[in-house]
Amino acid sequence: MSPADVIRIKELLPTSLGSAEIRERIARDILRRSVFSARMTSARYLARVRDVCTAVVGGDINRADARAQLMTQLAEMGHSPLDEGGLSNPASIARLNLIIDTQSQMAASVATLEAQTGAVVEMWPAWRLTRLEGRGMPRQDWPERWAAAGASCGFEGALQDRFIALKDSPIWQALGDGAGGYRDTLGNPYPPFAYGSGMGWEDVDAEECEALGLSTDGAEAPRAVSLSPGEREIADAVKRLGFDLNDVAEGLQWS
């Protein structure tokens, strides 16, 4: 599965909820299967987000072109990059970049997970969390985040003194869940582990794992991430969680 395929099969989840409410009220397995944006109730716009992000990761357009397409539709909806609100403004350049980059990073990570066969894991059983992209103000608390995530799972399959863990280690989910109280995470066991982060994975081979004292005995491929339950299944799951249907606008069919 390519990164473009990963985005293409996602469902739309229009919602009037803000970022914190989305995190608290919608289960992570629904979120990772969906295209959504805080306080965005237009399914038509989210469909465009899905289309342009698919084109970006497929190499058909660049981020600037994607941003321009989204701005055009947002202008028709009455939004302007000149409006106040910072990231809360749907048409702000920072928010559009964040949406495009986050969807692209997540799609690349899921495609990487899909490629982890037994033979691949035997040769490269671990990942190293490392900086892949520069940031103007990079987070300085990754050691603390790693320590908190490791402590939450007893550092099962993970090293304490290095950002290295087996590919099936629970530390990755703990990192994505924000173990230790971090509220800027996405709830996924794969990069990006925080909004706007430039940190990602690189493979660590079996020889290096052995040299560092990380046992690879019994190492398995990470569990596949299900992404396409169908629109009806998402709707049913939202109802089971007690999600207020008034928070979801045009787009999902509830009948």
Detail the topology: elements first, then pairings.
Layout: H1 3-8, E1 11-12, H2 19-25, H3 28-31, E2 34-35, H4 43-57, H5 63-76, H6 93-114, H7 118-123, E3 126-131, H8 142-152, E4 164-166, H9 171-177, E5 199-204, H10 206-212, H11 231-240
Parallel strand pairs: 1-2
Antiparallel strand pairs: 3-4, 3-5
Task: For this entry, give a set of tags.
5 strands; 3-stranded antiparallel beta sheet; 2 domains; 11 helices; 255 residues; two-stranded parallel ribbon
Structure, explained:
- With 255 residues, this protein is mostly helical.
- The protein folds into two domains: 3-112 and 227-247, no CATH class; 118-212, no CATH class.
- It is 43% helix and 7% strand.
- The chain has helices spanning 3-8, 19-25, 28-31, 43-57, 63-76, 93-114, 118-123, 142-152, 171-177, 206-212, 231-240; strands at 11-12, 34-35, 126-131, 164-166, 199-204.
- The strands form two sheets. It has a three-stranded antiparallel beta sheet. Strands 1-2 form a two-stranded parallel sheet.
Helix/strand/pairing class, anyone? Answer: mainly alpha
Spatially, the strands of the biggest sheet line up as 4-3-5
Question: Which spans of ≥5 residues are poorly predicted at pLDDT below 50?
Answer: 227-235, 247-255
Give a short account of the largest sheet: 3 strands, antiparallel
Helical percent range?
Answer: 40-55%
Kindly give the count of domains: 2
Total beta-strand segments: 5
N- and C-termini, Cα separation: 31 Å
